[in-house]
Amino acid sequence: MKETKIIAKAENFTATDFGKMSDLKDYILEFTPEIKVSGKVFGGQSVNATGSEFSFQVMVPGQETGFLHTHKNHEKLYFFLSGKGKFQVDGEVFPVQEGSVVKVAPAGKRSVRNNGAEPLLMLCVQYRGATFTAEDATDGDILNEKVEW
Questions:
Q1: Residue at 98 is within a domain
Q2: Is the dihedral of CA 126, 10, 23, 25 positive or negative?
Q3: Distance (Å, rounded) from C-alpha 112 to C-alpha 68?
Q4: Residue 10's beta-bridge partner residues?
Q5: What backbone phi and psi angles, to 5 degrees, belong to 15?
Q6: What CA–CA distance (Å, rounded) separates 109 from 58?
Q7: Does some domain include residue 53?
Q8: What DSSP assignment string belongs to 14-35?
Q9: Which CATH number do you get for residue 123?
Q10: What is the per-residue pLDDT across 109-136, written as a single tens digit (0 to 9) for each?
Q11: Alpha-carbon span 66 to 93, nearest angstrom
């Protein structure tokens, strides 16, 4: 089974390599002994994230999640990076493709499938819903320091 690799780490950052996106198929995520998902890897723990989780997933043509799921607290953003597929939320089915982004509320019953001819690659980011405030939107500070490479 494929594993992530730490590139660099210090007090204020962790950098991780997940490998080529074309090799995501080599990851296997085991939820239970009966539910194993090929082509999916979570990354939050690998980079020491403390406020969200993310995963990369690739689905080969014809592959689908095979189940509906919801969350108790987490919203999810699904970023489609390549390929074409169908997404289902609460029984509504719609097309997704490279460049599509889908936000699903915690209670949304969701599933995805690749109905295209190429691999469907997505990045999924989950975070506690209803927590982002106007103050968060202005949280960044531009520093008056020269960038040295």
A1: yes
A2: negative
A3: 9
A4: 13
A5: -115, 130
A6: 20
A7: yes
A8: EEEE---GGGGGG-EEESSSS-
A9: 2.60.120.10
A10: 999 999 999 999 999 999 999 999 999 9
A11: 15
